[in-house]
Specification:
It is built from 16 helices and 13 strands. It is of the alpha/beta class and 463 residues long. The longest helix is centred in the C-terminal third of the chain and has 23 residues. GO terms for molecular function: iron ion binding; phenylalanine 4-monooxygenase activity.
């Protein structure tokens, strides 16, 4: 679930997180009454160094270890492997804890290596470094619990703030997300009668608008979700059932999350075709209002479109573009996500239709966007990325995609303008991201493309 705003000060954490004002800012804050982390500063994260010695020699590893010892840097993990950049060499991958004088160690290693790459959130503004990003799908476990807001803690203006039962249920859902790890079965949730009633109110009202206002892809998938995943007025679908359905359709899966993730972390999940989804539901006193995305938003708004191949590819392209991108481009990509995946419109033969989850899960705004008098603009990532938007009222501007394929091609073109020293490719076989920054890697990619082209040509001959 993507954060709407990441402008959160340390004072806010002091107010809501229970930490004294003078506590170290580097330490991740634990949420009272729960086990999960609200957020930690970047410097509390590990730093990865990838480097190759100038030549093979006995004792070279010991020399590097002495460098780390010299600067009091603690190591969490170290491994050697064949170099991905220079086939005749090998390289070391070292995970460093936030300790000692890491800057000094980096400078010494840089001067005694063929190459050095630093992957870290804390060192992202230094030369030859890129922000850390997950390389394997299981790496999503590293940040899935570092949420920006909500979870079991609620702001004073939240509809459920004074409801002890609701707060207890929010803690229950937050702990489910906290304990989940990649590869596990998504836990089954027994929703209460009140929760199912709230879902039913939202489900019933929105379904009356879908045939008229939802895009054809959403209307194609929704009956399949009713048939296969228990989408109905008197039942809240289980994430496990929906995730399995999406995996069979496009390879997308759902992962439980306790609250809002940072834009960088949320978008990184999309690169692996993973959507971080909440399981809690809005407060029953206001069934048509929620200050944060809930299970109605996730399952009625987002999930149906992730079953469409073109939309799934478009969403993944945004995620891949975010990996290793500078902070200012993360903000731009998150804005593109906001105006497409959350509040996007598309053009069909009989007029404009909604495909954004924020519209498809909001009875009032879905009507306003297509029956009111907002401003419409064509989707152009370069221009859309800098458009400001409100988060507490209906959108004054909506962007129109000619098709998901057209939007995808525009995003790929825009991603090429992001300043990062490598390209990335998702390997669906290993569920990992391949960093393309050397000639051998490009050659392997060309070889793979050649094999796919042979299959295509052979298939065309048989038509």
């Amino acid at each position: 679930m993507l954060s709407k705003s990441e402008t959160i000060s340390i004072q806010q954490f002091d107010d809501h997180g229970g930490e004294p004002q003078g506590s170290p800012p580097d330490i991740p804050k634990l949420m009272p009454g729960g086990n999960y982390i609200r957020i930690g500063r970047d410097s509390a994260k590990s730093t990865y160094l990838l480097f190759a010695p100038p030549e093979e020699e006995v004792g070279v590893l010991a020399k590097y270890l002495n460098t780390f010892k010299k600067y009091d840097v603690n190591l969490l993990h170290i491994e050697s492997r064949p170099s991905t950049k220079m086939p005749d060499l090998y390289e070391f991958m070292v995970e460093c804890a936030p300790s000692g004088s890491l800057n000094g160690a980096i400078e010494d290693i840089k001067n005694s290596s063929q190459y050095l790459q630093v992957i870290s959130r804390d060192y992202k503004n230094q030369e030859n470094t890129v922000p850390w990003f997950p390389r394997r799908i299981r790496d999503l476990d590293r940040f899935a619990n570092q949420i920006l807001s909500y979870g079991s803690e609620l702001d004073s203006d939240h509809p459920g703030f004074t409801d002890a039962t609701y707060r207890s249920r929010r803690k229950y859902f937050a702990d489910i997300a906290y304990n989940y790890r990649h590869g596990q079965k998504l836990p089954h949730v027994d929703y209460s009668e009140a929760e199912v009633k709230t879902w039913g109110i939202v489900f019933r009202q929105l379904k009356t608008l879908y045939s008229k206002h939802a895009c054809k892809e959403h209307n194609h998938v929704f009956p399949l979700l009713e048939e296969n995943c228990g989408y109905r007025e008197d039942n809240i679908p289980q994430l496990e059932d929906v995730s399995n359905f999406l995996r069979d359709c496009t390879g997308f899966t759902l992962r439980p999350v306790a609250g809002l993730l940072s834009s960088r972390d949320f978008l990184a999940g999309l690169a692996f075709r993973v959507f971080h989804s909440t399981q809690y539901i809005r407060h029953s006193s206001k069934p048509f209002y929620t200050p944060e995305p809930d299970v109605c938003h996730e399952l009625l708004g987002h999930a149906p479109l992730f079953a469409d191949p073109d939309f799934a590819q478009f969403s993944q392209e945004i995620g891949l573009a975010s990996l290793g991108a500078p902070d200012d481009y993360i903000e731009k990509l998150a804005t593109c996500f906001w105006f497409t995946v959350e509040f996007g419109l598309c053009r069909e033969a009989d007029g404009l239709k909604a495909y954004g989850a924020g519209l498809l899960s909001s009875y009032g705004e879905l009507q306003y966007a297509l029956e009111g008098n907002p401003e419409y603009r064509s989707f152009d990532p370069e221009k859309t990325a800098t458009q400001k938007y409100p988060i507490t009222e209906y959108q004054p501007i909506y962007y129109i995609a000619e098709s998901f394929e057209d939007a995808k091609e525009k995003m790929i073109k825009y991603a090429a303008t992001i300043p990062r020293p490598f390209g990335v490719r998702y390997n669906a076989y290993t569920q990992s991201v391949e960093v393309l920054d050397s000639k051998p890697q490009i050659q392997r990619l060309v070889s793979n493309i050649g094999s796919e082209m042979s299959i295509l040509i052979d298939s065309l001959k048989k038509l």
